[in-house]
Structure formats: structure tokens, C-alpha cells
Model the fold of this input.
Amino acid sequence: MGRRKLKIQRLETMKARQATYSKRKTGIVKKAKEISVLCEVDVALLMYSPTDKPTLFVGQEKGLSDVLERLSKLPFEEREESLIFLMKILKKIYANSESDFDLNNSPQDASDNPLKLYEEQLGELRQRLAEKSKILRDWKDPNNVEDLAQLNLMEEHLVASLGGIRKKKGQFAMELQARERGAEMDFQ
Done:
């Protein structure tokens, strides 16, 4: 008895989806581990189950932060080219299948004009920088603040910080007392 070819489409029941995910998850993690070892490549695999439980696999040599840092160092255009290439492959794979897989909602559409995307991101970052710079100036010289809401926010922050300092001070005092009691016990 051989295997029959499965029609790749979304499973209707949550129970069936979870069962299939559980069976196939082990296989895909095993394949990721194998390619990591055999080809000595950096691998980071992140999957979410139908019940939103994450599974993370990172190759043996480097940690997740190293892999993500390496990805972030790639030029934007190169990352977008890789994504477009991947989407073309997926289109070929799913072209002949009766799958519900929708490639039209891909991030490729956003990459049609990377310059526009950069400009939007730059505008948002400049706005955030201006807001943070104003807050920093207010902290440096609170006498120049003329906004009551900003003064209230600064006061709340100071009260919260003071509470944290008092808590830490209490912890240190308790640790010191415990050490002193331990030293007294050792002395006797």
C-alpha cells in the first residue's frame, strides 16, 4: 500500500488542522535541523500552530539574534528580490493545484515602489525623533515646559521611578539583614 497524494487545501475542522500540524511539525523541524548540519547554514524557523502556540527552531551554530542580525544587514532591495523570487516559485507550485492559497495578498505589492516605502518610513521616524527630542528637552529644563499635560506626565514618571527606587532599596536592606544574620550564625 502506497501513499496517496493529498490535495493541498485548508482543512475544515480545527481538530484536523491541529492533528496535521502536530504530525508535520516534527518533520519540518527535523528537515531544518538536517539542512543546518549538512550544509552548515544558518537556519531560523518560526511556526505558529492553529492554536497560536509558537515553535522556534534555530540552527546549532548561531542564535536567533545572530540570524536576524544577518538578515537585517542585507540591503532592502536584496531582501525584496528574494521575496519576489520566493513568491514566483510558490505561484508555480500552486498554479496546478486546487489550493485556497492566495498569492495576491503578498507583500510583493508593497515592494513595487521601494522608494515610496522608504520615504514613508523615514517620515514616521523623523516624526518620532522630533517627539522624543522635545520630551528630552523638557526633561533637561522643566522650567520651559508650558503644557500641563506634559508636566503631569513627567510627575507620574518621577513618582513611578521613585517607587521603583524605594522597592529596590527595601530589597537591598532585606538582603543585607539576611547576610548579617547568616554571618552571626556562622560566628556562633
